[in-house]
Specification:
It is a single chain. The chain is an alpha+beta fold. The chain has 3 domains: about 55 residues, no CATH class; about 170 residues, 2-Layer Sandwich (Nucleotidyltransferase, domain 5); about 90 residues, no CATH class. Helices cover about 35% and strands about 20% of the residues. The chain has 11 helices and 12 strands. The strands form 2 sheets. Strands 6, 7, 8, 9, 10, 11 and 12 form a 7-stranded antiparallel β-sheet that branches. A 5-stranded mixed β-sheet has the order 3-2-1-4-5. It is elongated and about 90 Å long. The two termini are about 50 Å apart. About 5% of the residues have low confidence.
Length: about 375
């Protein structure tokens, strides 16, 4: 109201007016709603709400069990010590539900990353991690839930594919960056991020609607450029006044190749690799390289979408095998053929964490830990 209508009133003033008119907060608890309905019914029947003295004497014990209560906990000491993450599926804008991937620092309540995607995905959390790495650096620990993005294990091991095996993907990226990753299925353990999701549902939905935002691209731009900075200014503590345990931000190249999707594959009889229903072939300096059938390899899809493959501990570029050739050496004009020639593509060194043996070891370790947890 202050920003849009230049009307300055307190939250309590609005709350009291709405409650008096029979309009409860959308975040009111069930107990509050039941009590509100009960009092409304009693008022309609003109019943005196004052309890008799003999009934008052019976209400003597207000103690509840620890598991039924949610006592406040101490916050972290350092900025970057614990980053809570979660995905909130909600009708944020438009007519379809989307997922808001959110990360908040536990010590300062600073939103350090946020991203919309159609579902709760590895890509969404990679975008959040990218924001954290580029703006703040490498945090000490992530604390998140036990959803499939962080803890997936197929019931049939033979049907496991690393595209879906995101526990390994995200865990492997965190391991390379030196970030501890802890998961929990208890929502109360992540109270800060759960409450923040509720606050976003109350504020962000209204702002997106007021700004006529109906696409995921517009929503992400508004979220990063406007809403999160304003939110941190109003509600977060000044993180510059806290001791920080963030490590120095990696280079763009390291981030791009670390936030990658790694997929084990085998070379087929046509010297090709099938990936997402398309066929690719390995090249080096624009020259096709051939390998024996069933040779094991590791397909790398970098954060920016570039495709590479490691074979025998060497990195190659992957080029999609077209159904038809884009140029004819026999019939096209010589100038047209020369224009098609591509420049040599930069091939990153094997210093990046792309070794097939290391990735398989991480897969086995992650699934063994999940199976016996």
């Amino acid at each position: 109201m202050e920003e849009k209508e230049n009307i300055k009133v307190s939250y309590k003033f609005i709350y009291n007016i709405l409650t008096k008119e029979g309009i409860l907060s959308p975040k009111a608890r069930r107990k509050t709603k039941r009590e509100f309905a009960k009092q409304k019914l009693l008022q309609e029947k003109k019943i005196n709400l004052t309890l008799p003295e003999e009934e008052i004497s019976e209400i003597v014990n207000h103690e509840v069990a620890l598991e039924d209560s949610h006592p406040r906990l101490e916050k972290s000491k350092y900025f970057g010590e614990i980053i809570e993450q979660n995905g909130s599926i909600h009708k944020w804008f438009g007519e379809t539900k989307t997922c808001l991937h959110l990360a908040i620092d536990k010590a300062t309540s600073t939103i350090v990353g946020a991203w919309f995607d159609k579902h709760e995905t590895l890509k969404g959390y990679y975008h959040v991690l990218y924001q954290i790495l580029t703006k703040y650096g490498i945090p000490y620990k992530f604390f998140t839930d036990n959803r499939t993005v962080f803890n997936y294990m197929s019931l049939n091991p033979d049907k496991r594919t690393s595209e879906k095996d995101v526990l390994t993907q995200y865990g492997y990226a965190c391991k390379q960056l030196g970030i501890d990753l802890e998961t929990s299925s208890v929502s109360q353990a992540k109270g800060l991020i759960e409450r923040t999701n509720g606050t976003f549902q109350g504020r962000l939905v209204a702002e997106l609607r007021l700004n006529n935002i109906n696409t995921i691209e517009e929503a992400n731009k508004y979220l990063i450029d406007v809403f999160v900075p304003n939110f941190n200014t109003k509600f977060a503590l000044d993180y510059t006044k806290f001791p920080s345990v963030f490590e120095t931000s990696p280079s763009e190249e390291v981030i791009n190749y670390t936030l990658a999707v790694l997929t084990p594959r085998k070379i087929d009889n046509g010297n090709s690799i099938k990936f997402y229903n398309e066929y690719y072939q390995p090249y080096l300096d624009n020259e096709l390289k051939c390998f024996s059938p069933k040779t094991q390899c590791l397909v790398i899809k970098a954060f920016d979408g570039e495709l590479f493959v490691t074979i025998d501990e060497k990195v190659y570029e992957l080029k999609k095998l077209q159904r038809n050739s884009s140029v004819s050496k026999e019939l096209d004009v010589a100038n047209e053929v020369n224009e098609i020639k591509e420049k040599n593509k930069y091939i990153p060194p094997m210093s990046h964490p792309w070794k097939l043996a290391s990735f398989k070891k991480q897969m086995q370790k992650a699934h063994y830990k999940h199976k016996y947890a």
